[in-house]
Amino acid sequence: MKRKSDRTRPSLESLIESEDLGLEVLHPGGLEITRELAELCHIQKSQKVLDVASGTGESACYIAENFGCEVVGVDASEYMVEKAKRKAENRGLNIGFRKADAHNLPFEDGTFDVVISECTTCLLDKEKAISEMVRVVKSGGYVGIHDVCWREGTPEEIKQKLADIEGEKPETLEGWKRLFERAGLKEVIAIDKSYLMHGWGKEIKKKIGIVGQIKIFLRMIKNWGISGYKAIRESERIFQSEHIGYGIIVGRKP
Ligand SMILES: C[S@@+](CC[C@H](N)C(=O)[O-])C[C@H]1O[C@@H](n2cnc3c(N)ncnc32)[C@H](O)[C@@H]1O
After folding, report:
1. How far is the CA of 125 from the centre of ligand 1 (A)?
2. What is the pLDDT of residue 9?
3. Which residue in 20, 34, 195, 229 is deepest, having the highest Cβ count within 10 Å?
């Protein structure tokens, strides 16, 4: 079983999840990929949708507003759950955000029409997290994720380095598809969205701005010293390399 990631260690994920970066969407592709995922999962009005690892709640709010369905969001971080609750309240949305572990979802079997999870499964025990998503979706319902992928032929030492720094263990796009099939899902589709990864780092920096970037640099040095800064630069290089891709994977529970 994959170790749970330690967010007190230097990593890009710790920075992205930190409290004051002002980032609302914590995945590449913005809300356009959220829409694409929702459409591939055939989300429709009045359906019940679960967003696993819902982060700031941006996608859950977007889906509730644009698809008119009932959305529930869970996240392991108290901070994220509170932020998401405030956001939904400010937008006049009734979304049930709660703290929960993706490996052990607090819902009965077959509760949801659709279960999604964006840019998080590679951080988790993938088999366990996918089997939980499959368990809580209804028969005939859809499970869909988008996540980081390795390109075919990536050397093992690079994979190990990312696992050591970020606690992330992506699959190749085919590998994700196989995991979905092994979890019992049918009609599994996997769509290559790798082009989204390449501009993401720049996009984040632009959103954070120069002052934000300086603050982050100082925080990195204060929290983790030069060695922490170097580790984060190393994972940034891996994320910007030709070894990294991105993909959407969707399957239907028979
Ligand atoms: C990269 S962010 C993605 C957030 C959101 N899905 C999005 O795309 O904007 C990863 C999220 O996973 C959450 N997370 C990490 N481990 C988790 C777990 N075991 N169970 C539930 N949420 C988890 C983090 O708190 C964080 O909000």
Report:
1. 13
2. 81
3. 34
